[in-house]
Amino acid sequence: MSLINRLLLLLLACAAPLPATPSDLPLKVGLIGLDTSHVIAFTGLLNDKDNPSHVPGATVTAAYRGGSVDIPASINRVRGFTTTLTEKYGVRIYEDIAKMCEEVDAILLTSLDGRTHLEQVRPVLAAGKPVFIDKPVAGSLKDAVKIFQLAEDAGVPCFSSSSLRWYPGVVEVATADFGELRAALSYGPATSEPHHPSLFWYGIHAAEALFTVMGPGCQSVVATESSGAIVVTGKWNNERIGTLHGIRDGKTSFKVTAFGTKAIVEQKSGGNYAPMLREIVKFFQTGKPPVPAKLTLELYAFMEAADESVRQGGTPISIPDYLRRHGQTR
């Protein structure tokens, strides 16, 4: 071989793209619970590079079916969503969560039924896989506290949130120049499910938007309820008031409004799952939860204590006391 040919081969070799390293490849993600439309939406955004809102960095490769026989909205949808995931996206189905964890880098715990989350997350934590838990984080505040305690003890990153926390319109309200915040009002649909505290099922979205604006520090809640609505008023530190209006019957929509010393700021736009998924992928990559467990537990205490207030005829419920009574000691 001539010297010129050798030089040409050397130049071609130098110009060739380097093989992908493990850090360049998308993270492999496993789903737990194929009984919610979220699994199709999340997988489409992560796996489909042609999706206008594609979120890079992770790919759904595996799944565990799950499903709760006593919730028709859960068990009746597992087969259809499983078919879509396997046939459209090539997702592999596992019959055992622990086995699936051996094949993936991170977990999206998407089971519709929050009651299943505590037991389903145990093998994930044992495997040391970072996990995002879709709403509701659990079927009760007591279980939610236990989940975060187990994650902390195992040293495994874990967080939960509604997608509304990252809706551009909600973020614009939370970050607006309204001066000192005096109050906030959030409304949205709040249909309930009999196996869960009444706001866990769908009221979580409007509640998450409220807490996105208000932040931590809720001290007490008072709630009243009719067949068409539930209204929860929380008193925060520094004399701030946060109100959730959950719509049980009638036309529904989402909106959060901040009341400040300089301005009243109303939500102008909505959003989709993509901003939350970007935060989830970043979380999987860094191990740093974007929402602290303490804030999530305060939010769930707010919702569960609202039912307690209703049962007691509108009695104010102390949030710090309620958290302690349901297992929070850290």
Strand content: 15-25%
How many domains in all?
2
Coarse structural class = alpha/beta
Q: Could you give the distance between the termini?
A: 72 Å
Low-confidence parts, pLDDT < 50 over ≥5 residues?
3-21
Tally the beta strands.
13
Main sheet, how many strands, which sense, barrel? 7 strands, mixed
Oligomer class: single chain
CATH overall fold name of the largest domain: Dihydrodipicolinate Reductase, domain 2
Radius of gyration based on Cα positions: 22 Å
* Element-by-element helix/strand order: HEHEHHEHEHEHEHEHEEEEEHHEH
Q: What percentage of residues falls in helices of 4 or more residues?
A: 25-40%
Sum up the overall morphology in one term: globular
Mean pLDDT across all residues, rounded?
A: 94
Counting DSSP H or I runs of 4 or more residues, the number of helices is 12
Descriptors:
Dihydrodipicolinate Reductase, domain 2; 12 helices; 13 strands; Rossmann fold; single chain; 330 residues; 2 domains; six-stranded parallel beta sheet; disordered N terminus; seven-stranded mixed beta sheet; alpha/beta
How would you sum up this structure, described in words?
By secondary structure, the chain is α/β, with parallel strands linked by helices. It has 2 domains: 27-134, Rossmann fold, CATH 3.40.50; 164-271 and 293-325, Dihydrodipicolinate Reductase, domain 2. It contains 12 helices and 13 strands. A 7-stranded mixed β-sheet has the order 12-11-7-10-9-8-13. The protein has a 6-stranded parallel β-sheet with strand order 3-2-1-4-5-6, with helices on both faces. Strand 9 (229-236) and strand 10 form a beta hairpin. The longest helix is centred in the C-terminal third of the chain and has 19 residues, at 293-311. It is globular.
